């Protein structure tokens, strides 16, 4: 009995989702990221209360941990794609689903499905903590502004996860992928601000900053939120496309 294309898509997506949600390291990573975010939110909020609290923005303080929070989602993306290469599980997957490009696309889609709600929840937890602790001293924020900011933060973390997953497909090993990505985000990119700040603004991490950080009159806003989203999305699509091409052509 033949199976319709829509049914095949549903079955493959369901299989990829099941593999992802049953991977213990995924939930350990998300739990560790959530705890780290709360710890950092508490630290940044405490610093804000001790400083010029009246001029502090709840959104800025609540999202001040994003620079560190992204590490958890980088690890998540790498684990999602590299875990199958451990023990040769990828061979079983490709035997069952021989359409490589389609299989990888559904894997990335399942990763996005898991990442979006978790990214929103974790980002919102930092903002909520800052709001609870600083509601009497910080500037009042509008609901629309908060929603836009959290959507931007969720989008940035999701794109970062997908980009990391694509790098994981290209390198096929967890450690090298972690070294490359964490090295770029936490060492190379910060150093570039002193040497080529104009170019740095068009890297995925720096452009992503403008996706969620509210514009400030005290800073030069090089990119608008939409421009930041476009740059980050372009980087992600480029790496996903390259990953699919290599994934289809080389041996498992």
Order of helices and strands: HHHHHHHHHHH
Q: Helix coverage percent of residues? A: over 70%
Overall mean confidence score, pLDDT:
85
Low-confidence stretches: none
Protein name: ABC transporter permease
Keywords: Membrane, Transmembrane, Transmembrane helix
Transmembrane segments: 21-47, 67-87, 108-133, 153-171, 178-203, 223-247
Describe the structure concisely for a colleague.
It contains eleven helices and no strands.
Jot down its keywords.
globular, single chain, mainly alpha, 252 residues
Report on this structure.
There is one protein chain. With about 250 residues, the chain is mostly helical. It contains 11 helices and no strands. Helix 10 (about 205-210) crosses helix 11. It is globular and about 60 Å long. The two termini are about 30 Å apart. The model has no long low-confidence stretch (mean pLDDT about 85). This is ABC transporter permease. Keywords: Membrane, Transmembrane, Transmembrane helix.
